[in-house]
Amino acid sequence: MSRHQAVLESIVATVRTLYRQKEPFRIFHGSTNSTRPGHHDKVVDISSLRNVLHIDPARKTALVEPNVPMDKLVAATLRHGLVPPVVMEFPGITVGGGFSGSAGESSSFRYGYFDQTVNWAEIILANGDVVRASNAENQELFKGAAGGAGTLGITTLLELQLIPAKKYVRTTYRRTTSIQQAVDEIQAATQAGQHDYVDGIVFSRDLGVIITGTLTDDKPASATEQTFSRPWDPWYYLHVQERLKQHSSDAPPLEDYIPLPDYLFRYDRGGFWVGLEAFRYFGMLPFTALTRWFLNDFMHTRMLFRALHGSRRSFGYMVQDLSLPYPTAAQFMHYAASSLNIWPLWLCPLKEISPPSFHPWTERDGVPQPMLNIGLWGKAADELGAFVAQNRGLETRLQELGGRKVLYSHTYYTESEFWRIYDREWYDALRRKFHALTLPSIYEKVKVDAGQNGQAGSWAHWLRNLWPFAGLLGIVSAIRSREYLLHRSPVWWGAWMEFCKGKRE
Known about the structure:
Layout: H1 2-20, E1 26-28, E2 43-45, E3 52-56, E4 61-64, H2 70-78, E5 82-83, H3 95-100, H4 108-111, E6 118-124, E7 130-134, H5 139-145, E8 154-161, E9 163-164, E10 168-176, H6 179-191, E11 197-204, E12 207-216, H7 236-245, E13 254-259, H8 260-264, H9 276-282, H10 289-294, H11 301-311, E14 317-325, H12 326-339, E15 345-350, E16 363-364, E17 367-368, E18 371-379, H13 384-400, E19 404-405, H14 415-421, H15 424-433, H16 442-446, H17 450-454, H18 459-464, H19 469-481, H20 485-488, H21 493-504
Parallel strand pairs: 1-2
Antiparallel strand pairs: 3-4, 4-8, 5-9, 6-7, 6-8, 10-12, 10-13, 11-12, 11-15, 14-18, 14-19, 15-18, 16-17
Helix pairs in contact: 6-12, 11-19, 12-13
């Protein structure tokens, strides 16, 4: 803790200086999984807060700094036979990002968003004061900071809840033959009371799969381990697609036994299926098992995000998570299919959450209700105006159907539209009470100015959009990061082997 305290005091000194000068600032973490274009404000560097400080096996808690990525966190907790109840599926997503964003995963129908598994957070306010926020202390700040995109202060330390880990996730696959059936069956799976994980993939209007997972130490001798982390392993969604070819809708569900870390990060290689767009962009290599193996270093999400930001081509690709009430989710998917024809879609059921919040939420007769998140990721219009129109159309239809978007992505609401959706009175009161008025507001943080960021009409914009320069810039940026080295030997591998050895003994 002495190192943590020294770093904390240094950050506090910087923040107090900026506060006295009334200068707004943003927070530099060292990495990002947002798809929004960057900004150029003053930054406070907290990238050195990247350590797991303590695991308490008796209390089942972990004391963690905000820039600890998911793979490092899982490695640390597995050494004690524990795992976080909600683990973001991309290993580079950080604890702080999960807390200040809206991180919902396949266990979120049980445990809620990642921040709902946080006991307390240490936060530096914009005036330099250091406070602890929890459900018992500074509760308003705790609720507002969760999902607040770092606009109420700087999170510097968190205590996380943990649960017992097991060797495998017994994963079952149930075919669906319509969008409405997929919605109905995924909701039923969340209500069954027997699953630890639930998600789904919709491949087309008449083909989908509901995926359920149960933690277990037992694997039948006849079953083989199915892994997804090695270069020659299949991408998860392609594996599921192949499994469906062996399965009819009236047959018993198919099963896999997936080692726990492989399950948690099963969508990392290929970034769900967004990695396919890299092959389509260059068009020179076929999309085969051999080329995926050959280019494996570039196909992990850390590298894909580096390439995206390096290419400055977040425009032209739809990367949106959109949460809807169950009764209107199928309508929205039919709209998206008709207007964008982007497939597959990811389905992630979410536990109900009480407003006010920047997380997606919905109520019926004043009672919070669970929602279904729809991951909509794929190629959109190349022309900037058409791309913006597609996003605006999604936002409009989402509102009509009672849904809300996750704010990591491109957001095109006007300011008045944004505050008709979110509770400005609640948020402004928090900013005043906790001295955050010198920080960018959440609207300023998430809005996208297509004209400014796209720089349409400039020669630099023209050159960046001339094939294949943007893609090559992205590749160079990704290589320079050297993050491909992190996946050649996953940080969790040693801890996983120790965990399995302990189970055998």
